[in-house]
Amino acid sequence: MMIPVLIGVTLVTFILMNVVPGDPVIEMLGKRTDPETVAMVRKELGLDAPLHIQYLRFVAGALRGDLGKSYKLRQPVTALIMRTFPTTAKLALSAAVVAITLGITVGIISAVKQYSFLDHTTMVATLTAISAPVFWVAMIAQLVFGYYLRWFPISGYYSPWHMVLPAIVLGTRFSASIARLTRTTMLDVIRQDYIRTARAKGLAERMVTYSHALRNAMIPIVTIIGMQISGLLTGSFFTETVFAIPGLGSLAVKAMQQRDFPLMQGTVLFGAVVLCVGILIVDISYAYLDPRIRLE
Amino acid sequence: MRLLTRESKIPAGSTLWADSWRRLKRNKPAVVGLVFVLMILFVGIFADVLAPASPTDQDLRARFAKPGSPSKITRNGTYILGADQFGRDILSRIIYGARVSLTLAVVVEAITRVIGITVGSCAGYYGGWIDMAISRVLEVLMAFPDLLFYIGIRFALGSSLPVLILAFSAFGWAGTSRFVRGLVMQLKESEYVEAARAQGFSDARVIARHILPNCLGPLIVSITLSIPGTIMGEAGLAFLGLGIQPPAPSWGNMIYDSRAYLRVAPFFGIWPGVALIVTVLAFNLFGDGLRDALDPRLKR
Questions:
Q1: Averaged pLDDT for residues B249-258
Q2: pTM
């Protein structure tokens, strides 16, 4: 599954980069460069070879961890990605922690107190959160909490404290869908016979909710968390842009604004790999949650 | 039990729709959603009549005029929601922006659904190697980081409404295909499909007349729920400066423009965001309600 996706990704990005109008060498050197220099640089970059050779070279390089050299920053793409990725990973992971804790807690409370005022309020709130674009929320949060109230730094990334507001904004956005799904699956599970049995045994309600119901509701919840990984990555791109955090997203945005093809190609491919690995981790965690599912 | 449920669906299609409508009417959030959806459609269609000014008229002396301040360019003489960095009327730009967002969403839906339904029903109906081949392609498409594709295609072809439509359609159909494939695979085993085949109808006719009408409910729901996705997608691209080019108004463009002036004129960024949230929320509420109404078994 991973391999065809990655081949597809490399192929599509490669084709796109070559359809883009404008000569990268001229972009790089400026319009006034004499044709000989242009030809020389083109040869140096391997851009004089036929397209399929260029593609194979790119794939072969990528397999060795060499994604070429950025035209604009004059540095290896791999090094640039490795420098920025930890920041993005920190943001995405802290957001995921916020999303999962908040989402599951809210979902359980809503399910246990179904049709209460609290339940209705949280369901409307979560639907609104799902409907709000993350960059807009980030922008408004920055204005309110950073500029007016001065609770958090406005932008940049100089200390872990700078990461708090972005992580809360991104995490809250994703907690909404987790909360809604947790509520639905919990309601489903609560009506099962084994829950009735657990109650009949005289177990405390807390025990029934957490160790009997929640454990069984976890599979669909983990699935939706897995489906959110892609959104979380895109979401952190937007959040990084708003809060001026120097992560992978900012790098990718810079690459595309400066038409830096190798850098763009590299970030796209790297993003796809991260996505695939994330989905794989989710698949593995199924087996842990439900011993009936065997790893093959 | 199976016989009963099947028979209860036989008396003409109208009962299903009438039933659903009755159930939908009782669901208050869904009705609110529907009313807002209709209002937004109305605003988009009659933007020329409703907007107090042209979306591109400028008055540089009225830059960032606060909501409610007097205006020379609007018909009623005030900037109801304020003015932007060129003194354009924000309300009018939001109204015209609705037209842009809806046009994009509706056209993208139409294209992706036609392709998606065709491909998906072929995969589901024929199965075998056709299904295998199509499914692999779909998996790759669905796992592809689509935002990055939009960015690429936008650079390759520039940015105008048709290019955006192309960009969103290129991947959008995969989801529908997958969805329709599942439904068709399920339905093709049913007796009435077998009966239709036994009568010697062509495959195309069996699919179009006997299988697809039974997929209509879930399809309508998924269309309602995916329209907000496209609207948000456009706003997201615009926010990266890759949306429809100014001066054409779009909500995403307005949010993008407002970023630089957020401290001077917070209302400039707030209004288009509110418009976006209300629209997306309306479609989501209506879509959720519609799903419950069309298939009460799912209702919890």
A1: 88
A2: 0.82
